[in-house]
Design goal:
Blueprint: H1 4-10, H2 12-24, H3 27-34, E1 37-38, H4 39-46, H5 50-63, E2 66-68, E3 73-76, H6 81-84, H7 93-106, H8 110-116, H9 126-129, H10 133-158, E4 165-169, H11 175-183, E5 188-193, E6 214-218, E7 229-235, H12 243-256, E8 257-270, H13 278-290, E9 296-297, H14 298-307, E10 311-316, E11 322-329
Parallel strand pairs: 4-5, 4-7, 5-6, 7-8, 8-9
Antiparallel strand pairs: 1-3, 2-3, 8-11, 10-11
Helix pairs in contact: 2-5, 2-7, 4-5, 7-10, 10-11
Length: 330
């Protein structure tokens, strides 16, 4: 009998596209919003092929994502539902789509990387992301889905009371900025990202109640200085880049940080011995394929902060996959 960990790894090639197809055709939405249903009725309501749907439901049942009750009615499991409910803050549909349509196509490069190393001149995936409005919106949707739910916990963990102006560096459409504004009524926030992101700010429903306190500044953090504030945040940004680039960005943050202030790094963290967790190890490989960075331990992030001039650094661990590293400017 194959060990379960190996079995999940081997058949992951099948299960992730199955999840994506189920998201795309509204299978989870119907089961969550309308309640358990039989494969016959579900296929008819969605206008999709019953045989194909049933085979997919069997895969998802084996994964523990879906369960089948007496009478043949399927439902989404309680553990999985928060991540597959498109109305909720932890929805992962956009991220699953990105993994299936974008990341999977790049995994074929691993063989060449192993044989020859990664080319220093390889094109950035951002070339594809920013190629047109549709691609940009799809990527920003994935980033929101991946980030907003966790950002709510991280904003509370950071303790935004007393902070007056948050600058969310490379903040996309503002999942962390919006979460922080919802947590701290006196706060105002500025998202700093490429100019073409600006028109997409505020599209998400959660941003509407805080729209009057949410601003945007367009720019390139490689060539431009950062807007000033008493708290600068890097949400899932520094893992895109190598150590030298991270220090350069953190030095810009130090100059922009109005003391006494601080910088927040939000990212996946390896255990101190790099033994896991799996999501961090998997995305660390994705960073190698798609970007120029890596995931780090808390201590490694603190070393980067100290090189940039920040002091009194600390790690605050959240309950999910992403955690908080804080550096202070006195």
């Amino acid at each position: 009998m194959m060990p379960s960990a190996l079995e999940n790894a081997v058949y992951g090639l099948v299960s992730t596209p199955v999840l994506h197809s189920a998201v795309r055709h509204g299978v989870f939405a119907r089961l969550i919003e309308d309640g358990p249903d039989t494969v016959e009725c579900l296929a008819e309501r969605l206008g999709i092929d019953q045989d194909t749907l049933e085979r997919m439901l069997l895969v998802m049942t084996s994964l523990g994502v879906v369960e089948r009750a007496a009478g043949g009615k399927y439902s989404v499991t309680a553990d999985a539902a928060p991540f597959l409910d498109r109305r909720g803050p932890r929805y992962l549909g956009g991220f699953i789509e990105h993994l299936t349509l974008e990341t999977s196509g790049r995994l074929g490069r691993l063989d060449t990387y192993l044989s020859e190393g990664k080319p220093a001149t390889e094109a950035s995936p951002f070339d594809d992301v920013y190629r047109d409005t549709e691609s940009l919106r799809a990527f920003m949707r994935a980033m929101w889905d991946l980030s907003f739910g966790m950002s709510q916990e991280l904003a509370a963990l950071a303790g935004m009371a007393g902070t007056t102006h948050l600058v969310d560096v490379g903040g996309a459409t503002g999942p962390f900025a919006v979460a922080a504004l919802l947590d701290a009524p006196a706060l105002r926030a500025t998202v700093f990202d490429m100019p073409m992101v600006g028109p997409l700010i505020g599209e998400d429903a959660q941003a509407q109640p805080v729209a009057d306190r949410l601003g945007f500044v367009g720019g390139d953090f490689f060539t431009d200085e950062l807007p000033h504030g008493d708290c600068l945040a890097f949400g899932y940004i520094l893992s895109d880049w190598d150590d030298a680039t991270c220090v350069m960005l953190l030095e810009k943050a130090y100059r922009a940080c109005e003391g006494p202030g601080r910088v927040l790094i939000m990212d996946r963290l390896f255990e101190d011995d790099h033994s896991g967790p799996l999501a961090t190890a998997a995305m660390n490989l994705v960073m190698h394929i798609e970007m120029a960075g890596k995931h780090r331990t808390g201590a490694e992030f603190i070393a980067l902060l100290e090189r940039a001039g920040f002091a009194d650094c600390e790690v605050r661990r959240a309950g999910g996959e992403k955690h908080l590293v804080i550096g202070h400017k006195r």
